[in-house]
Amino acid sequence: MGPERTHREARAAEPGRSALRWGWGPSALFREDGPDMNVLVPNLGSTSLKYQLLDMDGERVLARGKIERIGSQDAIVSRATFWESAGGGSSAESVFDAPVADHRAAIQLLIEHLRPGGDASAGNITIDAVGFKAVIGGPDYRGSFRVDDPLMDAMRDFLPVAPVHNAVYIT
């Protein structure tokens, strides 16, 4: 009997699957089996919030959105939702202006988009995990890490290096 295949190798060998899988670094989240996992990936900038909700097992985007000009009375909000139905794939898209005072208000718009009964409800979407990329967390944090108190302390310590981008993650 030969050596056992890794999860990545086994998934890549499945028909219609790519070798691209999710999770890397010391706290990687590789799953051996189980239900689909949907991961919300927000990207907060100094005046914007972009996000995607990814079906990791199906390797597809379930929803995405972008909020630009955060901090203004006329922020631009665009969002889209994609889902499978008996007749194939469907989508809903919208773009509108709205007052978005700060990143907290932008995140509230994101939640309204993805919550049950919101724009994304046609796809019966759930969020199983959230992953984001910060600019810098210091020399001890390269790759993927679970957010905990030591990581947040490092983000605060390195705030002078990336004051515009890191501040939105720690406030």
Give an overview of the whole structure.
It is a single chain. The chain has helices at 7-13, 103-114, 149-157, 163-170, and strands at 38-44, 48-55, 60-68, 72-85, 88-100, 129-130. It is of the alpha+beta class and 171 residues long. A six-stranded mixed beta sheet has the order 5-4-3-2-1-6. Strand 1 (38-44) and strand 2 (48-55) form a beta hairpin. The radius of gyration is 18 Å and the shape is flat. The protein starts with 6 loop residues before the first helix and ends with a helix.
Structural class: alpha+beta
Q: Radius of gyration, rounded?
A: 18 Å
* Percent of sequence in beta strands: 25-35%
Range of helix content: 10-25%
Q: Say how many strands there are.
A: 6
Shape: flat
Which residues sit in consecutive blocks of at least 5 with pLDDT less than 50?
1-33
- Mean pLDDT, nearest integer? 75
What is the first-to-last residue Cα distance? 54 Å
Q: Please provide the ordered H/E string of secondary-structure elements.
A: HEEEEEHEHH
